[in-house]
Please model this.
Amino acid sequence: MGTRRILSGRVAAPAIGDRVHQTVRRASRHTLRAGMTLIEVMVALVILAGSLMAMGNFMGKYSHATKLAELRAHALDLATDRIDSVRHASLYTSVPATYAGTQSISLDSSTYTRTTIVNHVGGGVGDSLDVMLVTVKVTPPDSAGTVSKTIAFGPF
Model:
C-alpha cells in the first residue's frame, strides 16, 4: 500500500499518486493474459486431432456400408429380373431347360454369380399337384451376402 501521513493524530488517505500506481498495477496484471498459453493450444490441438480421427473412422465405415448396400441392391435387382423372366416364360415345360444353371454377370465393374434352381414337384399322370419351385441365388462380390428369391407357380 501507499505511504500514509499522520496529521495531528489522524491517519490521512494515501496520496493520489499511490492510488494511480495501484490501479496501473492491477490493470497490467489483466492485460498480460490476453493470449493463450502453449498448454492451452496443445490441449486444443489434441481435442481437434481426436475429433478429426473419429470423423475419419466414421466416414470409412459409412462408405463401406454404403458400398455393401449398393452391391446387395444390385444383387436383388438381378434376382428379381430372373424371377420376372420365369414368370413370363412362354412355355411351362421349357422353364427347367431354359432358366436352370449358373451365370456370371458383370455390372458396374463388379461380377455377380447368379444361380437358378428349378424343382418340378408332381406333374405325373396320377398326381394332382403340378408346381415348379424356382429359386434364384445371387452372390455379389466382396462377401456382401447372398440374395435369394423363390417363386412357386403352376402350369399356365
Observations:
- The chain has a mean pLDDT of 84.
- Strands lie at 6-7, 10-11, 101-107, 110-122, 130-139, 147-153.
- Helices lie at 16-31, 38-87, 95-99.
- Residues 37-153 form one domain.
